[in-house]
Automatic annotation (TrEMBL):
UniProt subcellular location: Nucleus
The organism's place on the tree of life at top rank: Eukaryota
Record's keyword annotation contains Nucleus: yes
GO cellular component, one term: checkpoint clamp complex
Keyword hit for NADP: no
Protein name: YALI0F06204p
Keywords for this protein: DNA damage, DNA repair, Nucleus
Record InterPro entries: Rad1_Rec1_Rad17
Major location category of this protein: nucleus
Family statement drawn from the similarity comment of this UniProt entry: Belongs to the rad1 family.
Origin species: Yarrowia lipolytica (strain CLIB 122 / E 150)
């Protein structure tokens, strides 16, 4: 029997299904990195134009046993095992078939309670077992009626994702708003047959924050004032511009790429948009199980300013 390097048990199976389904449009495969403080799922497209990262904290598990003696890492970062690449379609199918007994609503426009997982009284459990990159990764589902085991093999081990991280010191724009507002904006831009979207923010001129799109129906603008009942956070910090003037930051993106974050936004409560000096964009959705447990789905997009 191989040595068990990790084992964890959770009842939030439907929550895992929902957030992984939200990134399934990106790729057929996902890289799973098991860390001492949680899971990181990463998917990206072959063109390297976009990437999605799901961070699952260990408090989503009722039991989390991590054998750090065989893990990698340094003193200033969590220990981790090498990424394990598996079929995302197969994983979401297993989670849907054998694990869905708690409920999450993805009704657009719903209030905060509508967007949360109800795991009260859940009898369904999922145990995850990892014994190393050369052994199957096991998901064992158990409830009062049955026990089912799904095994996944490590695929394309030489093809690992390169992170599209934003360096915090290079972030020039940070906006936090309700997920409902961004969901509505993406729906409106899609209805306008948008092909290209430019995000523009400015400190003094009005509107302070807007999305401008071009497409089959011409130019469309969705604007937001810098008011607390609209934008929870609005920060522009570009050291290359005079803070006494109207500081402007902007960058453009293919709408066909940007819209891939819509499903994750639709099942979240808040969304944080960040842009760095290179125009790279992060759209991070906060998906809530309860007040103490939250999962973050972070879509990252490279700029396409040639349009």
């Amino acid at each position: 029997m191989p040595t068990l390097l990790f084992s964890g048990t959770t009842t939030c199976v439907s929550h895992l299904y929902t957030i992984l389904k939200a990134i399934a449009l990106m790729s057929k495969h996902v890289s799973l990195e098991i860390m001492s403080d949680g899971f990181k799922f990463t998917v990206d497209v072959d063109s390297r134009s976009s990437q999605a990262v799901v961070l699952v904290k260990k408090n989503l598990f009722s039991m989390y046993n991590f054998n750090d003696q065989d893990a990698e890492g340094s003193d200033d970062e969590p220990a981790f095992f090498p990424p394990y690449r598996l079929s995302l379609a197969s994983l979401t199918t297993c989670l849907e078939m054998f694990g869905k007994n708690d409920v999450i609503s993805d009704k657009a426009g719903g209030n905060a309670e509508d967007r949360r997982v109800d795991s009260s009284g859940a009898s369904q459990t999922c145990r995850i077992l990892y014994s190393g990159p050369d052994h199957p990764l096991k998901f064992v589902f158990r409830n009062d009626q049955f026990t089912t085991s799904c095994e996944f093999l490590n695929q394309d081990t030489d093809k690992q994702s390169e992170s599209l991280n934003l360096d915090p010191s290079e972030v020039v724009l940070k906006v936090i708003l309700s997920a409902h507002l961004l969901t509505q904006a993406l729906r409106d831009l899609e209805g306008a047959k948008s092909q290209y979207v430019r995000i523009i923010a400015q400190t003094r001129a009005i509107p302070h924050f807007r999305l401008e799109s071009t497409g089959e129906f011409g130019r469309n603008v969705i604007a937001y004032p810098n008011e607390r009942n609209v934008l929870d956070t609005f920060v522009i910090d570009d050291p290359d511009q005079d803070p006494e003037g109207n500081v402007i930051v902007q960058s453009g993106y293919l709408f066909g790429e940007l819209v891939k974050c819509r499903e994750a936004v639709g099942v979240s409560e808040k969304v944080c948009l960040r842009m760095d000096v290179y125009g790279r964009l992060s759209v991070q959705s906060m998906c809530v199980v309860d007040e103490a447990r939250k999962t973050f789905v972070d879509f990252r997009f490279n700029a396409h300013d040639e349009y």
